[in-house]
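Appendix C: a fully annotated inverse folding record. The material below is reproduced so that readers can follow the format used throughout the book. The structure is listed first as tokens, followed by the designed sequence.
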């Protein structure tokens, strides 16, 4: 799994204190990470997920250096966003990791937000589905992937829509955007289209892995050809969301995906601490079946948090387990040994 990166993305929002270039600037210093030029024209692919008038509006606002999506923009913002789309689609095609910014999972078809302008993951997943692939998208960002869910559900509900994409979001309880977060399952045209799982503040690596394993078991009936990970690292204990994930947890996620045997790609979303690149490195090591690159002990959730987690996800878990004949009980636990 290659890291797809381009230094031009560091020119967007250069003075940003949160979603700033420092998040992934370390990649520019690594000898084995080159500037990648997308094989596809990201700008031509924007319409896969976004309205034409919206695309033109974002382009014009960036030309005028407007403050939108909670960041300062410039023409570098638009160029970086288009570059991020192109690299994300390349990652989806080749099974790589698109280490891109700006992120995308809060962008819907006609609305920006949460540092996001164009939905990198949704565009990549739709591109694959147009090639006849069935795609499972798992969003592990601490914030809900509301834009991705809206785009995928709208596509599935359209009379000419397709059902080749299934979405699952594992996000922190009471996280942003508050009004949209509800644990539950959305079924469209008789099939599960999206799953939302919430983990309580203080959740550790074990709860992340339990949630991922639940989603993987729930997707067996869907039978995905490809798994796309919206790889947000703001659940890391060094971030400010109150979750307690570590590099060990992201490594375990990679190992679980490696064991699944499914082609996997990933697209960077949030994560605003100093260890974003280390989390990417740990995840890729797991994907490739290598040993953990860092000796970081995993975090274990307290029993009261498991009680809360089981309470807020009881209905979702019940439906998923019933639909899959209890297969979740048979999940392997190699990757959550802490």
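Designed amino acids, in order:
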């Amino acid at each position: 799994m290659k890291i797809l990166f381009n230094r031009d993305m560091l020119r967007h929002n250069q003075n940003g204190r949160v979603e700033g270039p420092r998040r992934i600037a370390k990649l520019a210093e690594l000898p084995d990470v080159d500037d990648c030029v997308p094989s596809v024209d990201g700008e031509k692919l924007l319409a896969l997920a976004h309205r034409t008038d919206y695309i033109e509006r974002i382009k014009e606002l960036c030309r005028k250096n407007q403050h939108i999506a909670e960041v300062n923009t410039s023409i570098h913002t638009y160029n970086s966003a288009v570059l991020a789309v192109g690299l994300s689609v390349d990652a989806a095609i080749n099974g790589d990791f698109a280490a891109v910014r700006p992120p995308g999972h809060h962008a819907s078809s006609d609305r920006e937000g949460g540092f996001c302008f164009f939905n990198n993951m949704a565009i990549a997943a739709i591109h694959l589905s147009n090639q006849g692939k069935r795609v499972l998208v798992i969003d592990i960002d601490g914030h809900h992937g509301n834009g991705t869910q809206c785009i995928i559900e709208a596509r599935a509900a359209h009379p000419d829509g397709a059902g080749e994409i299934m979405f699952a979001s594992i996000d922190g309880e009471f996280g942003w955007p508050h009004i949209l977060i509800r644990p539950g399952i959305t079924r469209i045209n008789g099939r599960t289209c999206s799953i939302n799982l919430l983990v309580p503040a203080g959740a550790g690596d074990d709860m992340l892995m339990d949630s991922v394993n639940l989603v993987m078991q729930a997707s067996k009936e869907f039978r995905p050809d490809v798994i796309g990970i919206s790889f947000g690292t703001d659940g890391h204990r060094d971030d400010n969301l109150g979750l307690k994930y570590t590099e060990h947890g992201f490594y375990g996620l990679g190992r679980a995906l490696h064991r699944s045997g499914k082609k996997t790609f990933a697209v960077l979303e949030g994560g605003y601490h100093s260890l974003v690149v280390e989390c990417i490195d740990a995840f890729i090591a797991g994907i490739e079946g290598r040993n953990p690159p860092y000796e970081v002990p995993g975090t274990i959730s307290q029993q009261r948090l498991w009680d809360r987690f089981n309470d807020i996800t009881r209905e979702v878990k019940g439906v998923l387990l019933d639909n899959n004949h209890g297969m979740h009980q048979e999940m392997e636990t190699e990757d959550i040994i802490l």
